[in-house]
Amino acid sequence: MSRWQKIWRFIPLFSVMMFLLTGCGQDTLSALKPRGPVARDQLFLMKLSLGIMMVVVLIVIVLYIYVLMRFRKKKGDNTIPKQVEGNHVLEIVWTVIPIILLVVLAVPTVAYTFKLSENHIGDKDAVHVKVTAHAFWWQFEYPELGIATAQDLVIPKGKKVAFELTSADVLHSFWVPSLGGKIDTNPGSNTNVLYLQADEVDTFKGKCAELCGASHALMDFKVKSLEQADFDKWVNKMKTPAVVPADAKAGEQLFKDNCMSCHAVSPQGLGMGPNLNGFASREMVAGILAHTDENIVKWIKDPQAEKPGNKMPAFGATLKDDQINSIVKYLDSLK
């Protein structure tokens, strides 16, 4: 058996494996499991277009098989079939039907496109969030509430969230698959708008959907949907300064000496790096590492090893282990 014959034998196995793997994934990272009205409308359009395409493909396959069987050359029959140059009825049918299908697809597509592109910034019933994409992290500012955070976007359940999106460096793309489609964040004055809504209390995963650099695949964030009362409590906690215990004061001073030039620790703090207000309550470190003291130490010592291309300098060579541990103790107090 030749080498190519051996390879071809594995193609059916690979096909089955690929089919099975299409069912793998996370509920909070799938556009096929919508958790809000925007995502449901977009899924309806996907199903509509897919359904129309499947019907067309099925009809074409059936006609192809019928013609292949009905008009195939029979053994011993050498007669030349009747030559047909055209049929006005058939030509009208296969011209009118595609037009009808296009209208069926175009009308809801145009309607939903205008509906989903509405600008809700300024609506009194919507939460306004300014999103700024950085390489490779996300900044979320709530201008009306006077707070800002990073990596963890917190929203109230059942309420429209109006996003104003831009980028601080290169082109990125904001995407929360469970809540709606992606939209680009452009550098400069070109600001995009988007609105999303979550119908359930849950934590959804968001990603950058535009190739933006070495750690594009690690540019993740979380969207936490809370009941309105819990959201209000979160806002109040973000506005309340953290109480630094006495044994973390040394770490606080080290943080001010080494980190404060980039990172803020205040309700509305905006700086070159992520605002670390409420840092101890976050589930992830740098959006990708489990929130443990060991991972915080690893990140402070050598952030490039965890997320290549990010702009945070390494402190493993400039700070001693006990100094880094003191900073970690201070960060653990920022609840």
TrEMBL record:
<keyword id="KW-0813">Transport</keyword>
<keyword id="KW-0479">Metal-binding</keyword>
<dbReference type="GO" id="GO:0005507">
    <property type="term" value="F:copper ion binding"/>
</dbReference>
<keyword id="KW-1133">Transmembrane helix</keyword>
<keyword id="KW-0812">Transmembrane</keyword>
<dbReference type="GO" id="GO:0005886">
    <property type="term" value="C:plasma membrane"/>
</dbReference>
<keyword id="KW-0408">Iron</keyword>
<dbReference type="GO" id="GO:0004129">
    <property type="term" value="F:cytochrome-c oxidase activity"/>
</dbReference>
<dbReference type="InterPro" id="IPR008972">
    <property type="entry name" value="Cupredoxin"/>
</dbReference>
<feature type="transmembrane region" description="Helical">
    <location>
        <begin position="49"/>
        <end position="68"/>
    </location>
</feature>
<dbReference type="Pfam" id="PF02790">
    <property type="entry name" value="COX2_TM"/>
</dbReference>
<dbReference type="InterPro" id="IPR014222">
    <property type="entry name" value="Cyt_c_oxidase_su2"/>
</dbReference>
<dbReference type="InterPro" id="IPR036257">
    <property type="entry name" value="Cyt_c_oxidase_su2_TM_sf"/>
</dbReference>
<dbReference type="InterPro" id="IPR034236">
    <property type="entry name" value="CuRO_CcO_Caa3_II"/>
</dbReference>
<keyword id="KW-0560">Oxidoreductase</keyword>
<feature type="transmembrane region" description="Helical">
    <location>
        <begin position="89"/>
        <end position="114"/>
    </location>
</feature>
<keyword id="KW-0186">Copper</keyword>
<dbReference type="GO" id="GO:0020037">
    <property type="term" value="F:heme binding"/>
</dbReference>
<comment type="function">
    <text>Subunits I and II form the functional core of the enzyme complex. Electrons originating in cytochrome c are transferred via heme a and Cu(A) to the binuclear center formed by heme a3 and Cu(B).</text>
</comment>
<keyword id="KW-0679">Respiratory chain</keyword>
<dbReference type="InterPro" id="IPR045187">
    <property type="entry name" value="CcO_II"/>
</dbReference>
<feature type="domain" description="Cytochrome oxidase subunit II transmembrane region profile">
    <location>
        <begin position="23"/>
        <end position="120"/>
    </location>
</feature>
<dbReference type="GO" id="GO:0042773">
    <property type="term" value="P:ATP synthesis coupled electron transport"/>
</dbReference>
<keyword id="KW-0349">Heme</keyword>
<dbReference type="Pfam" id="PF00034">
    <property type="entry name" value="Cytochrom_C"/>
</dbReference>
<feature type="domain" description="Cytochrome oxidase subunit II copper A binding">
    <location>
        <begin position="124"/>
        <end position="237"/>
    </location>
</feature>
<dbReference type="Pfam" id="PF00116">
    <property type="entry name" value="COX2"/>
</dbReference>
<dbReference type="InterPro" id="IPR002429">
    <property type="entry name" value="CcO_II-like_C"/>
</dbReference>
<keyword id="KW-0249">Electron transport</keyword>
<comment type="similarity">
    <text>Belongs to the cytochrome c oxidase subunit 2 family.</text>
</comment>
<keyword id="KW-1278">Translocase</keyword>
<dbReference type="InterPro" id="IPR036909">
    <property type="entry name" value="Cyt_c-like_dom_sf"/>
</dbReference>
<dbReference type="InterPro" id="IPR011759">
    <property type="entry name" value="Cyt_c_oxidase_su2_TM_dom"/>
</dbReference>
<protein>
    <recommendedName>
        <fullName>Cytochrome c oxidase subunit 2</fullName>
        <ecNumber>7.1.1.9</ecNumber>
    </recommendedName>
</protein>
<feature type="domain" description="Cytochrome c">
    <location>
        <begin position="246"/>
        <end position="335"/>
    </location>
</feature>
<dbReference type="InterPro" id="IPR009056">
    <property type="entry name" value="Cyt_c-like_dom"/>
</dbReference>
<dbReference type="InterPro" id="IPR001505">
    <property type="entry name" value="Copper_CuA"/>
</dbReference>
<dbReference type="GO" id="GO:0016491">
    <property type="term" value="F:oxidoreductase activity"/>
</dbReference>
<keyword id="KW-0472">Membrane</keyword>
